[in-house]
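The material for today's practical consists of a large collection of protein records. There is nothing in a record beyond a sequence line and a structure line. As an example, a complete record with its sequence and its structure tokens follows:
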Amino acid sequence: MTRTDADRELDLVRATEIESHLSGCRACSQAYENIRTLGSALKSADLYFKAPAQLKSRIRESLGAENKDTSTLQRLAASKSDEGGPNALPSRSQTKAGPTLFWWHWLKWGIPIAGTALIALLVATGSIGPSTDGRLAQEVTASHLRSLMATHLTDVLSSDQHTVKPWFAGKVDFAPPVKDLAAQGFPLVGGRLDYLEDRPVAALVYQRNQHKINLFIWPATSSANTTKKPAVRRGCNLIHWNESGMTFWAISELNPAELREFADLLK
């Protein structure tokens, strides 16, 4: 089963073809990730609400009252039939109880269905769902995993910071800071141009033993220096922070302690 077989309806040959296409087509790959994100959001436990005991009790009482009303209607109908035949007019109690039961049946089944449809619509249009940081973490994770799966880990392959940094000139509208951390056990591998948050970004690639680290950099929207809580996405550890007018996202399969050490060396 390939990662592209999201609905499990593709045969092996077709799934392999699509996998190959996604590795080279950014637009289709992003569309696929959006589908996966929507599917995950619909399965999120946050969308489910456990009814309180008081509500359950009120529903049981309403159902009991409904059964009593139904029995009363049946007895009244039988009584009227005996008294006036099949053309006997319904009593006032019948005309009141009938519409009540009718609307109760519609509400009992219609409200949950309408609620589910509304949630799906809100998720699809982005009105609810992951936060901005959550959506960005999904984009970063997808880009990181694609870089490891395909042959596009680097555009410029060099361990020399003075080679990697000038390569970005003219490709992005900022100068990404590039540090040599080989002495600290995080040698520079190279860099590439990537696309996150609807803009081109710089992606620097470092290494720790057999693990690759993708460091995404682009101008921050705020000048404040901040460090966000580490996160985990699809088996990868992420750390992101703002410093000196830049946003940094570091992601790797490294354990959290080593990734934190890497981030601290950059600050």
The longest helix spans residues 92-125. The first strand starts at residue 156 and ends at 157.
